[in-house]
Amino acid sequence: MADNILEVRDLKTHFHTNDGVVKAVDGVDLHVEKGEILAIVGESGCGKSVTSQSIMRLIGAKSSEKVSGEILYHGEDLLSKTEKEMRQIRGKDMSMVFQDPMTSLNPAYKVGTQIAEMPIIHEKKDKKSSWKRAIDMLTKVGIPSPEKRASQYPHQFSGGMRQRGVVAMSLACDPDLIIADEPTTALDVTIQAQVLDLLRKLRDDTGTAIMMITHDLGVVAELCDRVAVMYAGKIVEEGTVADIFDNPQHPYTQGLIHSLPKPGSRERLKPIEGQPPNLHNLPEGCRFQDRCPFVMDVCREKQPELVPADKQDHQAACWLMGEEENDGDGRTGESEEPEKTF
Ligand SMILES: Nc1ncnc2c1ncn2[C@@H]1O[C@H](COP(=O)(O)OP(=O)(O)OP(=O)(O)O)[C@@H](O)[C@H]1O
Question: Which residue stretches belong to region Disordered (predicted)?
Answer without folding.
Answer: 322-342
